[in-house]
Amino acid sequence: MWPPGGQDDSEASFSVVASSSSLTDVSVRFPPESDDCLIVFGAVRLDCGQTVDFTLLSGEVATFTSTTTDLSGTLIEASMPVAVYANNSRVMIGWSNVSDSTSEQMFPVSAWGRQFAVAPIRDNSQSGYSLRVTCGTAVNVSVNIAGVVHQLMSQRPLTVGFPDNRPAYVSVVDDSESAVQLVQFVRGATVAADSGAPAALVVPAVERFSHVYDLVTGDGYTEYVSIVTRRADISGLRLNGQPLGVSALPWLNVDSGSDWVTAAVQLPASRSSKLENTGQRQFGAYHYGYDHGRCAFAHTAGASLPIQVIYSSSHCQL
Predict the structure, then answer these.
(1) What letters, b where the CB count within 10 A reaches 16 and e where it falls short, cover 128-160?
(2) What's this model's pTM, rounded to 2 decimal places?
(3) Separation of alpha carbons 265 and 123, rounded Å
(4) Does 62 map to a domain?
């Protein structure tokens, strides 16, 4: 999640939602000490670096909030499957004065990865986005972000800004089996021509891509699907049965050292759409929409999660 801002009403929070199991034991370990730590769980005040153990009943929800502390890096472990949602209220991302709320369901650690292809934010070209990457509790993990190598710290997110709104390729470069989590944050608009309000997207790793996605659009928003694919696979792409040719879209290279490319397609309003590769070649699809000057949303159109997420204990990192 994004750290709470300086404004009085900005808040970061996360919620742990139990499944239908009768009892779920949960352990929450907060990131290391910060200078101004204030974490609230119901009427209880908690500290950074603290571990809290509790039990949830079927369908029960536990929510932790802070108006001062970056909760990113919190480790959540559960005896039965749980869902974890990271939220920001009235947050500003970037240098603009546009605030909004964000909410994303987090992937469990078993669904993290080592290679990511990040698409630019359509109609937000002068404000761009920021990336936050975490290695969880792993140590000695290095990542290459758009050609620059960074060393990650355990339970500490690394933030890198892309105000020029260009595509980015992110990969783990060390020899270990460590995987990372990557979240893309849309920046609030800095100029009148930009669309952006804060939004968050958990970017799936390349190995989590699918060959088909179902998309649903509503009224009142301008909505796009950003596609990331191998250049050789463009000819197999279809949106509602219609091909997407190389000449029909401005395909951008994600990275000079890879063959990944990206382009954005505006989606028709108030309908369901199907995006697929007829050759069943895997590609990524990210759904973004906005109401100009008011609010925005971003989420992955789908991801192939490992089967152990369903059948074994859950392990999630913010």
Answers:
(1) bbbbbbbbbebeebbbbbbeeeeebbbbebbeb
(2) 0.92
(3) 12
(4) yes
